[in-house]
UniProtKB/TrEMBL annotation:
Domain Glycosyl transferase family: 189-358
This protein's name: Glycosyl transferase
PANTHER family assigned to the protein according to its UniProt record, in alphabetical order: SULFOQUINOVOSYL TRANSFERASE SQD2
Domain of life assignment: Bacteria
All copies of domain Glycosyltransferase subfamily 4-like N-terminal, residue ranges: 15-171
Protein source organism: Candidatus Magasanikbacteria bacterium CG11_big_fil_rev_8_21_14_0_20_39_34
CDD domains hit by this protein: GT4_PimA-like
GO molecular function terms listed in the Swiss-Prot or TrEMBL record: hexosyltransferase activity
Amino acid sequence: MKNTLIISLDFPPTIGGIASYVEQIAGEFPPENFVILAPKTKNASYDDKFSFTVERFNLFFPKFLAPRWLRLYFIIKKLVKKYGIEIIHLHHAAPVALAAKRIKKKLGVPYMIFSHGTDIAAASKGKWGRASLIDACIQAEQVITNSNSLDRRLVAQFQTLENRTTVLYPCPDKSFLTPPEQEKVDKLKSQLALEGKRVILSIARLEHGKGFTNLTRHLPAILEEVPNLVWIIVGEGSQKQNLLKMVQKYSLQNIVRFIGHVPHDEIKTYYYLSDVFILLTHPYQGMEEGLGLVFLEASATGIPMIAGMSGGVEEAVIHEKTGLVVDTYNETQVKEAIARLLKDEKYASALGKAAQQRIIKDFSWEKQLEKLRPWMFEE
């Protein structure tokens, strides 16, 4: 197997789909062949738990020094020589690809681009950004996308990518299939004062496109239908202060519980204490969800799900088969979906079980990573 350098701007302890995706891919391969390059973290000992090597640096020069990505180029160059790197995986197209292109030119080390949706949309804004992205993709060995929806959008936007893309679905950690100890669930329920409550759960960064503001606006009408409802929100982000103000505006302080950052190995308990998982994803400024790993994690636990229409989400949640997909902005649709899953327990349970079985059947890393064999192994 080729010695591989994975470069990601998102990596644990950062919470998010890309961070989990990268960690799990690295964990599935022989650790002696993998090196992760990620931004510095305050917790210097965090990486001790990994069997593979993690290198952390300040990846870019300060804003007043241009081009900022040149620092990343020198870091990659150093690691390529140190570990005998034979191929590089990029989990952010810009500006990481600019450094990778120079590495390929100077050292002859090829790279692959893994697109998660929003990164490509952001990188392709503006004439220069679009031209640079096209060139980076053309020079890549392959562009890996995380859903058929994203794959189609990329090829439609950049015709030169036709026959140069491969869909590699993210997969949830296998541990999500096994419930935590009931004592642990009961203890957390008690801490959050959830006795006698119906619980809806959202896990995501508190950013645009995740539907937090929309659900907050819809919540007063939903409470008329389900008065003992509690909404648990796990995650941090730039929209938190805005959400806190909205919660006060609609007098929802006793309904919404902001949990903040939760380590990934502790998140499972929140799924198992909740009745419905909901994330009202939606397009934002041309950016859409690639797939949504969080929906696959929810599926693995068997919790009923409600998702908003956005990008590849409808591949993660199959409407009325493994969950419900709604128009984020349609208050009636959202309210009826929540009420239906909370009141019709038989129907909700059937959706959850179907979602879990789909994960077992189709979303294993062993099955997905076989698609990378042409570029990862010496033939």
